[in-house]
Amino acid sequence: MNQESGGTESGGAVEREATGSRLAVVIMAAGKGTRLKSRRPKVLHEIGGMPLLSHVIAAAGKIVAPADIYVVIGHQAERVRVAVEASGVRFVEQVEQRGTGHAIQCAQAAIEGYENVLVLSGDVPLIRPETIEQVWNFHRSEQAAMTILTAAPEDPTGYGRVLRRSPDAPEVEAIVEQKALAPDQQAIREINSGIYAFRTAALLSHLNKLTSNNTQRELYLTDMASLLRTAGERVVAIQAAEAAEVLGANTIAELIALDATLRRATASRLMACGVTIFQPDTCVIDATVEIEPDTVIEPFVQLLGRTKIGADCQIRSYSVIENCTLGDGVLLRQGCILTESRVGDGAKIGPYAHLRPGSDIGQDAHVGNFVETKKTRLGKGSKANHLTYLGDTEVGEGTNIGAGVITCNYDGVHKHPTHIGNGVFVGSDSTLVAPITVNDGVYIGAGSCITKDVPAGALAVARTRQITKEGWATARRALQETKK
Ligand code: UD1
Ligand code: CA
Questions:
Q1: 446-461, pLDDT tens digit by residue?
Q2: Which of 225, 195, 239, 202 is nearest to 3 (CA)?
């Protein structure tokens, strides 16, 4: 046997020899996912805000370099490729999907040069790199031709079962798919996770012996266990401590269960770091979100994508925050929607505020009820507290934007900028027709329609003068009385 001499590990990654790589990872991701009843390929369905396949690639990337990861694509291959190619992995095409064994046959040329190969399933996304490494270490210490990662979930229905030579022996005789289980095999709880390590030479010398002599008329990779055994090769199994980690996503219900597991883990991780999350099961928090200690998240909050939240913030119920950065001590009142925006320390937002992409709310600034901002910078301590639209606008520091103020930034064809200086007071219900500049210290009378730039320190009023006719209403009512 041409065996590994017990490779060295450092920092959780397997060190590779300077001359060529010893270990490749193949991720099977060509299947259609018929049981999902979806037009989207299975491996692009998301849990925790990320495609299944991206989770698996991320785990594999902790073991080998991206260039040693081969993703087998087939069903909607281009769509899958485009979705994950930024990770730097390589691709192998399986034009017709004739089973998991056939998927590996398609990767034959790619893996020939490697001594060993780890096979992962694109639809088993919760697998942790530590567990993959355990499989790899066990594979080497057992000097095996094939090592199978197994688990013992509560309900093994639907999975292939692992037949050990004896209950405590590592040696495996065969993997039997659910549909082929004999009556006395139904009780076996140890399942095949769909994650394996192979010595490449042993795999490749028997891979073409697979037959589609089964109910699915497919080439099963699982049949390699009995094939290699029969050839006198060593086939062993190692059981994962946590079955939840190796569960697959074949149906929407299974997908949602994995999503819940992942989000519960994310919430637990954040809480362990000092973040308070009330009713975590009602919150949707992506694995990519970062939150500093002493921040409080109320029920029914969604924190998505690359969102970062500072310390001592309060995120009240029903807010949805996507790809935003919030400083320390931010108060986000109920029902706010924030997308691709930044909020400075101590700012108060909402309730019911909408920060659209490119909003930059300064330190201690206030954005209140039913205020919408887009590509707008609100300076330190400035306030827009009620019913306002600010688009393509720069607002200086200590400026007050009155209730109902609107920047008219769009002429039907182009967008135009509005500049408002420091210490400005914009009276309620004013409209500012862009492009326009309102300089420092200006006062704008309520109800003005401002169409010309206003110099610093000036008062601008642009509204029709009030007419008051004394006694007019009383006289009118008296007249109406006489007509009755
Ligand atoms: C497979 C195993 C089963 C195991 C389970 C664990 C086989 C025959 N069965 O069953 O023993 O318990 O995984 O989750 O392997 N794929 C391809 N090309 C194909 C077919 C599938 O790339 O031609 C990919 C799929 O995209 C998927 C993975 O291989 O990511 C597994 O395929 P799937 O059809 O889901 O296998 P299971 O029925 O779950
Ligand atoms: Ca599966």
A1: 999 999 999 999 999 9
A2: 202
Find tokens 């029914």 and name the residue: 300
Banded model confidence at residue 21, pLDDT cuts 50, 70, 90:
low
**% of the chain with per-residue pLDDT over 90:** 95
Rounded average pLDDT over 356-374: 98
Please give the Cα distance from 426 to 383 (Å, whole number): 10
Residue from 100, 176, 192 whose mutation best tests the ligand 1 pocket (most atoms within 8 A of CB): 100
Paired sense of beta strands 431-433 and 443-444, if any: unpaired
The span from the CA of 459 to the CA of 480, in Å, is 43
- Residue among 55, 139, 366, 386 flagged as catalytic: 386
Type of residue numbered 71: V
Distances (CA, A) of 309 to 47, 136, 264, 340, 454: 21, 37, 19, 13, 38
Q: Closest ligand to 246 CA?
A: 1
CB 238 within 8 A of CB 149: yes
Tokens 């997308």 found at? 339
Ligand 1 geometric centre to CA of 452 (Å): 67
224 vs 109, 273, 451, CA distance in Å?
Answer: 18, 45, 78
Question: Residue 370, class by beta-carbon neighbours within 10 Å (0-12 exposed, 13-18 middle, 19+ buried)?
Answer: middle
Please tell me the predicted confidence (pLDDT) of residue 23.
97
Cα 439 to Cα 424: distance, rounded to the nearest angstrom: 8
Nearest ligand to the CA atom of 120: 1
Kindly report the protein residue whose alpha carbon is nearest to atom 29 of ligand 1.
28
pLDDT of residue 177 exceeding 50, the answer is: yes
Mean pLDDT, rounded, for 40-68: 97
* Res 14 pLDDT > 60: no
Domain 4-246 CATH assignment equals 3.40.50.2300? no
Mean pLDDT rounded to a whole number for the chain = 95
Q: Is pLDDT at 8 greater than 90 in this prediction?
A: no
Locate CATH 2.160.10.10 in the chain.
Answer: 263-460
Q: How far apart are CA 368 and CA 379, in angstroms?
A: 15
Q: What is the pLDDT of residue 5?
A: 38
Residue 354 is a catalytic residue: no
CATH code of 263-460, in short, is 2.160.10.10
313/275 Cα distance (integer angstroms): 10
Cα–ligand 2 centroid distance for 117 (angstroms): 20
Boundaries of CATH 3.90.550.10 in the chain? Answer: 4-246
